[in-house]
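Structure in, sequence out. Go:
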């Protein structure tokens, strides 16, 4: 079975000015003349996990990682309440990816990511299909209203105790409407104690949803430094309260634009927060994509899911790109 590659350090990194007072952190590792691949992190607002480098053969791939606006090493950081999120939307992130591609002199790249990263990958690829060579997704989401409603309301049918605690952390007047919108308001409160309590309650709920995933990373949401946690929750609530600025069903409707792009969709059968239905629906309308269902995995993965991603990336690494860029 495929194994992860040894740790490798970046050979180049920087901060790219993308306008609106924003600078996004980027780095490249592996082979400077290799096949380009972009790792698109989840969240939104999680910041790029540097361990993603180990999925790519450094002899074959030129691996690009970046932190989306407001998180990770990008500036300014959304943990600061004075940092506005007006210029942090899906459209801005798509434009940032294109600006980064041009900055690095890359013609086309493989896109890898999962969870929210899946939504951003699909939105970018449908906007710029000519710039995408292949796609590998672990944990398919499209951030449709029904998906957000399921995660923050519907899953409560399976976890009534933790869900009631999530709901009851809100003021009584906010408990019967959109919980995500109510949390979004609290996370932008002028009162630091209110913001911190809301962020902790949000992550406690997220952790409850993945607590059964013993082969993955139970507790992954709360297990981050205070600033990273605040930026993550603040950006999440901002995006989900606005349906990620996507029309309902837009990514499924426009999946025909992915025609000719080979894809591998990898999804855990035990993912209760983002059920298999979304991946299933996407695979039906994207003929060039293979759907691989991982029986022992939830949303945070498993060794089997990781090996499946490694195998897909290795296979696509055998496809040669005619054009090579340079930093």
């Amino acid at each position: 079975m495929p194994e992860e590659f040894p740790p490798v350090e970046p050979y180049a990194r920087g901060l790219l000015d993308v306008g609106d007072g924003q600078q996004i952190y980027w780095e490249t590792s592996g082979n400077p003349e290799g096949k380009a691949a972009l790792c698109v992190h989840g969240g939104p607002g999680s910041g790029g996990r540097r361990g993603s480098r180990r999925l790519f053969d450094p002899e074959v791939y030129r691996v690009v990682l970046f932190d989306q606006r407001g998180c990770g090493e990008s500036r300014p950081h959304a943990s600061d309440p004075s940092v506005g999120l007006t210029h942090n939307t899906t459209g801005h992130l798509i434009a940032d990816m294109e600006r980064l591609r041009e900055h690095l002199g890359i013609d086309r790249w493989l896109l890898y990511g999962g969870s929210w990263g899946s939504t951003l990958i699909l939105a970018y690829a449908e906007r710029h299909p000519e710039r995408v060579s292949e796609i590998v997704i672990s944990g398919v989401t499209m951030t449709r209203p029904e998906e957000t409603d399921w995660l923050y309301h519907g899953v409560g049918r399976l976890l009534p105790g933790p869900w009631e605690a999530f709901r009851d952390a809100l003021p009584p007047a906010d408990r019967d409407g959109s919980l995500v919108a109510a949390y979004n308001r609290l996370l932008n409160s002028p009162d630091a104690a209110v913001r911190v309590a809301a962020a902790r309650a949000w992550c406690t709920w997220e952790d409850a949803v993945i607590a059964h995933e013993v082969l993955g990373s139970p507790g992954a949401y709360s297990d981050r430094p205070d600033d990273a946690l605040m930026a993550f929750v603040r950006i999440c609530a901002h995006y989900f309260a606005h349906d990620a600025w996507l029309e309902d069903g837009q990514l499924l409707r426009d999946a025909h634009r992915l025609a000719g792009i080979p894809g591998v969709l990898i999804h855990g059968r035990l993912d209760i927060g983002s059920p298999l239905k979304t991946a299933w629906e996407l695979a039906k309308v994207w003929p060039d994509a293979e759907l691989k269902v991982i029986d022992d995995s939830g949303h945070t993965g498993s060794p089997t899911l990781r090996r499946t991603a490694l195998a897909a990336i290795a296979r696509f690494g055998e496809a040669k790109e005619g054009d090579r860029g340079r930093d």
